[in-house]
């Protein structure tokens, strides 16, 4: 316990320098988003966040959005394969196809990020967020929770991307 506290204190002291990094930067950045708790837990799940500046953190947020999209797509696809009600199956296919189409888009958005084309990257994340909204309109209760996670993460990622413009 003591060792952990000391490490944490030590880490926060490093964060008070001229350029904020580590936990302090993650928290101050995520405070500027709509869902700070989700933002913090997503960023902190990648250890490299603790050494990243704002640009690095933003890239991680876009990356996390990509992996969350793929994870959600896989879950939706499992429901598609299992569904026996035709109407519900159709709604699930709508979501599955729209998420599937978003994957190459956000991957292009990550490449754009590395070329410092932040606006293009922003639009790719925003497109995923819109796809979630459209999917949610289908009223599929079994995926509402995973959709909510993807919605919040992509919303926060666009807020963080906004800080770079
Ligand atoms: C942020 O960190 C990266 C290396 O991870 C560096 O290339 C870049 O210049 C830094 N940006 C700023 C604004 O300090
Ligand atoms: C799919 O159906 C199988 C067998 O009924 C079940 O065990 C499994 O939990 C279902 N998966 C999903 C994602 O609903
Ligand atoms: C998902 O999109 C890829 C192209 O990016 C396509 O090849 C694949 O067939 C699609 N999968 C489904 C299940 O629609």
TrEMBL record:
SUPFAM superfamilies linked: Plant invertase/pectin methylesterase inhibitor (SSF101148)
Keywords (A to Z) from UniProt: Signal
PANTHER family in the cross-refs: CELL WALL _ VACUOLAR INHIBITOR OF FRUCTOSIDASE 2-LIKE, PECTINESTERASE INHIBITOR-LIKE
Keyword Transmembrane: no
Protein family according to the UniProt entry: Belongs to the PMEI family.
Organism: Hibiscus syriacus
Protein name (Swiss-Prot/TrEMBL): RNA-binding family protein
GO MF term (any one): pectinesterase inhibitor activity
Pectinesterase inhibitor domain boundaries: 21-160
InterPro entries: Invertase/methylesterase_inhib, Pectinesterase_inhib_dom, PME_Inhibitor, PMEI_plant
């Amino acid at each position: 316990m003591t060792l952990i506290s000391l490490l944490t204190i030590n880490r926060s002291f490093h964060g008070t320098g001229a350029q904020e990094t580590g936990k302090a930067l993650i928290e101050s950045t995520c405070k500027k988003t709509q869902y700070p708790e989700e933002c913090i837990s997503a960023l902190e799940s990648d250890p490299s966040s603790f050494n990243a500046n704002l640009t690095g953190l933003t890239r991680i947020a876009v990356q996390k959005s990509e992996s969350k999209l793929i994870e959600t797509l896989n879950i939706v696809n499992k429901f598609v394969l299992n569904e026996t009600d035709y109407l519900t199956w159709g709604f699930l296919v709508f979501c599955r196809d729209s998420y599937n189409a978003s994957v190459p888009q956000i991957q292009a958005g990550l490449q754009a990020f590395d070329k410092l084309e932040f606006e293009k990257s922003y639009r790719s994340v925003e497109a995923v967020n819109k796809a979630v909204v459209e999917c949610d309109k289908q009223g599929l209760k079994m995926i509402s929770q995973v959709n909510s996670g993807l919605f919040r993460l992509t919303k926060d990622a666009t807020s963080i991307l906004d800080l770079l413009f």
